[in-house]
Design a protein that fits this description.
By secondary structure, the protein is α+β, with helices and mostly antiparallel strands. Helices cover about 35% and strands about 30% of the residues. Helix 2 (about 55-60) packs across helix 3.
Length: about 260
């Protein structure tokens, strides 16, 4: 075989080997991601009450995965801040996500009452001229004053969310002297209006934390946060509370019960 042909054949074999190696790496990465999803669910539902995950070899056997796949899955969970590897101990759970339901209209303190006391740092409160998007959602003329509230909400001293709230001023004025540090706005609105809240329209998406939000939430700059936009109505249908809530994605888990309807 001429030398040039041997070179081409060798190069072709090398390319095949590299492609196969890359395919194996992609497959292992896919499997690691799948395993991380399963383990994350276990972590969040308290399947490891002692706080330590089984040994890597046990996980590999239980989930029919290679040791390398298990290690990559644990690395993904470590990057999320959920687990850490301790010398002589193994992989342990180091963080907890709190469940936040999406199928009931409740304030954060009501939602998390089983996990401790939610406190609010009121960073800003006072009237502002309603921007057009806010005015449209609250059914007030653009430029009309509304009450603006910005709160940093913590559970056990850990920042969970940064809440930006707009309320029509005829209702918001009564909230100026209220205990915003320890009481959900939902409860205050029901007390002020004498009505129950009826329903809310929500949008949930992941956004990148800006420098200010990351600093306030004590999250890494550029980290993903859960943005919940919620417009809440009284039982009579009036919109009374427009919120933009940034949740730390490493501290909150959203869940709900959905029924199929065609």
């Amino acid at each position: 075989m001429p030398p040039t042909e041997r070179i081409r054949e060798h190069a072709g074999q090398g390319a095949t080997t590299v492609a196969a190696h890359r395919a194996r790496r992609r497959l292992r990465a896919d499997q690691a991601r799948q395993l991380a999803d399963l383990l994350r669910r276990q972590l969040l539902t308290g399947a490891f009450p002692a706080g330590a995950l089984p040994h890597e070899s046990t996980l590999a056997t239980d989930y029919r995965a290679s040791r390398n796949t298990v290690r990559e899955a644990l690395d993904l969970l470590r990057a999320e801040g959920l687990v850490e590897r301790l010398p002589g101990v193994g992989t342990v759970v180091v963080a907890q996500k709190y469940p936040h339901g999406l199928d009931r209209l409740m304030g954060l303190a009501e939602t998390l009452h089983e996990h401790g006391h939610v406190t609010n740092e009121v960073r800003t409160v006072g009237p502002v001229a309603a921007p057009t998007p806010v005015a449209d959602r609250l059914h007030v003329p653009p430029g009309t004053d509304v009450l603006y509230i910005e709160r940093l909400r913590r559970l056990g001293g850990i920042p969970l969310s940064l809440d930006l709230t707009y309320i029509p001023l005829d209702l918001g004025t009564a909230l100026l002297g209220a205990d915003l540090e320890n009481t959900d706005v939902f409860r205050l609105l029901e007390a002020v209006t004498g009505q129950r809240l009826g329903h809310a329209e929500i949008t949930l998406e992941a956004v990148t934390a800006d420098a200010h939000s990351a600093a306030v939430l004590e999250a890494p700059r550029g980290a993903a946060v859960l943005m919940l936009e919620r417009l809440t109505h009284l039982a009579d249908g009036r919109p009374v509370d427009l919120e933009f809530i940034r949740f730390r994605g490493d501290r909150i888990s959203m869940s709900g019960l959905l029924h199929r309807s065609l």
